[in-house]
Amino acid sequence: MTERPPRAAPSRGTVRGVRSTDWSHLLDVLRERRRGIAAAVVLGVVWTGGKIAVPSLTRVAIDRSLETGSTAVGWALWIVAAGVVTGLLTAGRRYLAFRESRTVEARLRRRIHDHVLGLHMGFHDRSQTGQLMSRMSADLNQVQMFVVMVPLTVSHVALIAGVTVVLLVTDPLLALVALIPLPLITMVAKRFSDAIHPAVLAVQSEQAQLSSVVEESISGVRVVKGFGAEQVRLDAVAVEADDIQRVSLDAARVRARFLPLMELLPGLGLIGVLGIGGLRVLDGAMSVGELVAYNFYVTLLVWPLRSISMTLAFGQRAAAALERIDEVLSVAPAIVAPSEPAQLQASGGGLKVELADVHFAYGDATVLHGIDLTIDAGTSVALVGGTAAGKSTVARLLLRFYDPTAGSVRLGGIDLRDLDPDDVRRNVQMVFEDTLLFHDTVAANIAFARPDASPADITAAAAAAGADFIDDLPEGFDTVLGERGYSLSGGQRQRIAIARVLLADPAVLILDDATSAVDPAKEHEIRSAMATAMVGRTTIVIAHRPGTIAMADRVVLLDGGCIAAVGTHDELLRTEPRYRAVLADDDGAR
Q1: Element (H, E) at 382
Q2: Full-model pTM
Q3: Whole-angstrom Cα distance, residue 189 to residue 187?
Q4: Which of 12, 142, 393, 558 is the most exposed place for a label (fewest CB within 10 A)?
Q5: Is 555 within 8 Å of 567 (Cβ atoms)?
Q6: How far, in Å, CA of 589 to CA of 306, rounded?
Q7: Of 269, 270, 290, which is closest to residue 280 (Cα–Cα)?
Q8: What is the distance between the alpha carbons of residues 542 and 397, in angstroms, rounded to a whole number?
Q9: Pairing outcome for strands 380-385 and 406-411
Q10: pLDDT tens track for 240-298
């Protein structure tokens, strides 16, 4: 399937500009929960029997009382008993319905989350975080609200069928009067369904867009405040809020046109039954108890019919939500494991890394042009170059975030495309320039890749990364960090990130400007720790600072996506003007 990121607006399709909905993902989960849903349906059917029994018991109680002139206490007790049983069945079926609907929601949420994490970086490059979050929250909530109505609606349909049979058997003429509105209700419900679907889809799309704007404002609050741009973001939110108001009012107008009519039509049958039935009682053709029971039965039809109209509305919201969810779930991962992946044979000396005639482009923008590079196991290479030279792209190819457009990347002599991506990323670890820490304890952040690591191992990794500041934190390793670790300085975050990758103990270590956020006064401490960590593993250092570059055995100068020069740091300083220019530019930038 071709790749397509989530859309922010309805697509063209079969129903008034909306494509048909794929219900397969929901049906898969419903099949998994069929026992619980079936139990709710069974309780609903039994509940139907209790609801139908009450009017019959009422008819007998009234007629017996009028015939004998005495109170029908026994029948009243039967009515109370039937009411109690019906109430218990109502509680049971509603509990099961909500339990199963929430379970379906949770499983779909896990499915979407797992699928999104399994998608390639190209998908995430083009997707908005707020859009994805909206699909996992607001859209799934719409699906849950529909699923909870499924067993309830089945019981309501059973009640309508049961009451209809009773009405026809009791008095066919009155039954005809009572049921005349049903075809009209069906016709109105169909028109309502067609009209509300695109309106609801527009609302959910705008809500997702608002989530994206809000998420960007909150996650980028430091930039917003730093530029004094609060009003700019307020204006952006106001635009999205106005859009939601506009499409919500459009949906409200649709409901205002159809729902009152759908609620009125069942009442017309009741009016007809009261008029004709009253005349029959006066003529002696029908007893008072029969009329009361008949009206009771017709009244029983009103709420189920209204409930079905609600289910239609929920179904349209769920259909719109499932369409948006399917836009994510239908994206096929571009990076997948082969059916029979090869096995890496990692040793204590690292793994050999090879790039053979590697070309790569982000869309139409070519970044790498025929890179040939071999890094022997246990050695280190520094990648140096100006902005957009392709340094970080090489690292991302090694992690198999992307596959090369042409050529091959090999690890331990095996093409990465022949390996399981999880196996690649267990053996290749990276300290990113943009450090992300999670809202958790310091220890949990360090043990992110090894949750079962012992406290001693965590402490050792922190020491190797020079993260001695941890002991000064309020709770030491148990200190809970704020979102993204912003409660720490840039250098502190980077040292925890280094400790995290050291604890993972990869065969290949990539340091993407790992010392860029470290204070120069502390840089020598980090370099000392990294020198120790580089022993026994293949290391790729992406750096600008001469002291960090000099740690590598060789330096590879990248220029315009090509290898411009290879040598030691000292050799390139003497012989390569472009190398000196890159270092000079970095010194000037600092």
Answers
A1: strand 380-385
A2: 0.71
A3: 5
A4: 12
A5: yes
A6: 69
A7: 290
A8: 14
A9: unpaired
A10: 888 888 888 888 888 888 878 777 777 777 777 778 877 877 777 777 887 788 778 87
Helix, coil or strand: residue 533: helix
Regarding whether 524 and 375 lie in a shared domain, the answer is yes
Using N-to-C axis directions, what is the helix angle for 288-329 and 230-283, rounded to 10°? 150
SS3 assignment for 447-464: CCCCCCCCHHHHHHHHHH
Which residue, of 313, 329, 345, is where some domain finishes? 329
Q: Pick the residue with more confidence: 35 or 345?
A: 35
| DSSP 8-state code for residue 437 | B
Do 370 and 250 share a domain, yes or no? no
| 356 three-class SS | strand
Measured from the Cβ of residue 67, the count of other Cβ atoms closer than 10 Å reads 11
Query: Hunting for tokens 């990347």 — which residue is that?
Result: 409
User: Which amino acid makes up residue 414?
Assistant: I
In a domain, 54, yes or no: yes
- Identify whether residues 360 and 459 lie together within a single domain: yes
The last residue of a domain, from among 276, 297, 329: 329
User: Do 468 and 539 share a structural domain?
Assistant: yes
* The residue type at 341: P
Write out the H or E segment, with its range, that includes residue 567. Answer: strand 562-567
How far from chain centre, in Å, is Cα 514? Answer: 31
Query: 58 and 182 share a domain?
Result: yes
Q: Which residue has the tokens 């049979």?
A: 165
For residue range 354-392, what is the model confidence (pLDDT) as tens digits? 999 999 998 888 899 999 999 999 899 999 988 888 888
pLDDT band at residue 459 under the 50/70/90 scheme: very high
In terms of domains, do 89 and 224 share one? yes
**Based on the structure, what is the number of domains in the chain?**
2
Q: From residue 295, how far is each of 174, 178, 526 by CA, in Å?
A: 10, 9, 84
Same domain, 297 and 429: no
Cα–Cα distance for residue pair 102/107, rounded to 1 Å: 9
Q: Are 206 and 244 in contact (CB under 8 A)?
A: yes
pLDDT of residue 223: 66
Pick from 380, 351, 385, 382: nearest CA to 369: 385
Q: Are residues 551 and 405 in the same domain?
A: yes
What's the residue count for the chain? 590
Let me know the angle formed at the C-alpha of 256 by 254 and 260, rounded to the nearest 5 degrees.
125
Give the range of the structural domain holding residue 147, as residue numbers without chain letter: 24-329
CB contact set of 135 (below 8 Å; sequence gap of 6+): 6, 112, 208, 321, 324, 325, 328
Strand, coil or helix: 451: coil
348 lies in some domain:
no
Q: In sequence order, which residues have a C-beta less than 8 Å from that of residue 116 and are 6 or more positions away?
A: 132, 328
Task: Tell how strand 508-512 and strand 538-542 pair up.
Answer: parallel
Dihedral of CA atoms 310, 315, 317, 321 in degrees, nearest 10, equals 160
